[in-house]
Amino acid sequence: MTYVYILAAFLIAGIIAGAVFQAKYSPDPSAAVHQYAAPVYHGESLIRYISHSFALSVITLTAAFVLGFFALGQPFGPLLLIYKGFGIGASAAFLYSSFGTKAALSVAVLILPKAFFSSLVLILGVRELLRASVYTLSCWTGGDKSEHQEAALKLYCIKYLVLILISLIISASDAGINLLFAGLS
Asked: Cα angle at 101 between 99 and 105, to 5 degrees?
């Protein structure tokens, strides 16, 4: 459980960095920065928004998954969390800089739910990256028997498939909330 708190601290550091970056430089919204955390449609269809949001989640989770196969993949996990947090912070700061205090409801409804759940998924993914990376190192040093390796690999793959499925549900839910909220405004 301590891992989760430490990993959450990296995410929070990213949120702070993203908010400061957006407040200081005020760049236009970019999917590479806000990672579809900001409700910026630019005329996109609902399906396109879901697919882009989901694709970014899959790319990030896949990076964590692949890095788990490397004994030295551990330092990159926290960097993924900082990147995710940066997008969340930049998105919230963008809304506040655009709408002032009127953005509080938009941030609470449009950014925070997706930010919370997608961050939780990524934290779990990075936790698995760290565990798999340690396991890979132990296999290199002869610390594990071969009969356990196949089962561990299957479990690792299943966990990531579950996280990707959850990411799809989060992306679809986020798009639905954005559509409903935009329709009610």
From this structure: 90
Instruction: Label residues 48-72 b or e (16+ Cβ within 10 Å = b).
Output: ebbebbbebbbebbebbbebbeeee
pTM of the model: 0.89
| Cβ atoms of residues 98 and 147 within 8 Å | no
Q: Which domain holds residue 158?
A: 2-29+57-184
> What pLDDT, in 10s, does the model give residues 117-152?
999 999 999 999 998 888 877 766 666 556 677 788
Mean of pLDDT values over 11-21:
95
Contacts of 30 (CB under 8 A, 6+ apart): none
Structural domains in the chain (count): 1
End-to-end CA distance of the chain: 40
Residue 36 lies in a domain: no
Nearest to 139 by CA among 127, 124, 151, 123: 151
Residue 52 forms part of a structural domain: no
Asked if 65 and 125 count as a contact pair (C-beta separation under 8 A), the reply is: yes
135 within some domain: yes
CA distance 97 to 100: 6
